[in-house]
Amino acid sequence: MTRKDLLDIESLSRREIEHLLDQAGPFKELFTRSVKKVPALKGKSVLTLFYEPSTRTLSSFEVAAKRLSADVTNFDVPHSSVVKGESVRDTIATLQAMRTDYIIVRNKMAGLPLVIARETKACVINAGDGAHAHPTQALLDGFTFREVFPKPEGKKILIVGDILHSRVARSTSTLMRKLGVEVAWLGPGSLVPKYGPEDIRRFTNFDEAMQWAPDSIYLLRVQMERQDAPYFPSLREYTKLYGVTRERFKRIADQGIYIMHPGPVNRGVELCDDVMNYSRCLIDQQVENGIAARMAVLYWLKPDENSPS
Amino acid sequence: MSNTLTEADIAQGVEKLTRSIHEANLDQNYVLVGLRSRGDEVAERILVALAAVGINVPMGVLDISLYRDDLAHLNSNPKLEGSDLPFAVDGANVILVDDVLFTGRTVRAAIDALMDYGRPAKIELAVLIDRGHRELPFSPNYVGIELETKRLDYVDVKLKETDGMDLVEVTENRD
Questions:
Q1: What CATH number is attached to the domain comprising B141?
Q2: DSSP state, A169?
Q3: Which of A58, A142, B5, B76 is the S-S candidate for A2 at Cβ 3.0 to 4.6 Å?
């Protein structure tokens, strides 16, 4: 079973997810060799199209594609014709004419990757679209979670922060649930949606969430750049109520709970400095695993001969 | 010429392969590297046969999927199992082991893959079955069984660990 595009986690079966997580393992093993590159995608072209700023995801994809020997071109959006007023549709026509094999797209509009996927022969990977989905983040989270819990079924993950606006929370929750992991959300009432899957526990109080006894706590980044319409009064209050402060960290460490975060972290907001030196902090591991997971995705997708040329 | 190899034929092939590897390497160290899949099982059997006469050699397995030259033509890519080479490849005398030698494309991929782990002193090739029809200039150093086939014949190898039985069947392509 193979697909042309990876647009979200929702449409993947548990078997497909497990296949991708299984495949990320052998890719990660390559990183310990002195030659980290393999020729699997030799001669293939990968185009990254990031309409939103990103350093980590963009370079993670770039490293993944290069380790598979693909040629990578970054479509420099801030300097491109988009700024000069070219419509998305015309950009797609341009991309199509370039005959690129893979397009990796990030945009603040949910659904744009789907539009591009429908209209091009290239394999399209969604690298984050609005508050909709960020499937490769979810895959690397699932892979990291399985490294510490080889049998994830029945384990518990608590996702903390602005759930409402987070594509990471959405995709990672979906993936974890498909693996049989119990998911709970914690955050200010204004940022924890009441709609959505009923099996996800909702908490607005840190202590109550701790009593649920999670195996891992997943801290979302407070998106400073998106606080123009604030959903909570101040950063200080957020940290006081939902941050992993030194006092909370002590309890977390005592209980041996793993800490995850999609990065980049705001030290002193979502978490205190001590967390970064904690032996069960998986944040650096997530970064390394991101490359392996993205290599697995690139290796898995196959262009569809029947799609529009 | 029978178009089927039985369990006994396969055992004989492994024995011949083991003997020729042993005799050619009396005065030097070497490592066996089995190619996934089934090449690893052949290597395992050679290892057991060598151990029976008191010789222990290191063994590794190589997954060559990422080095295949036909990935772009496949509808879905082969599942990766990963490689495991529990020794330094640098300076080693490596004997690649596979079940069947046909076009030689797998050997090309295997040599490329191995070189990315280090710089071996020497690479040799051992195959349980040589069925001919090379498309690349390779010649095996050790052969268990020479099997006469037509270019388009399908050679189906079954080995116990992977397939539950030892059997090789040659089917003629009637297209």
A1: 3.40.50.2020
A2: H
A3: B76
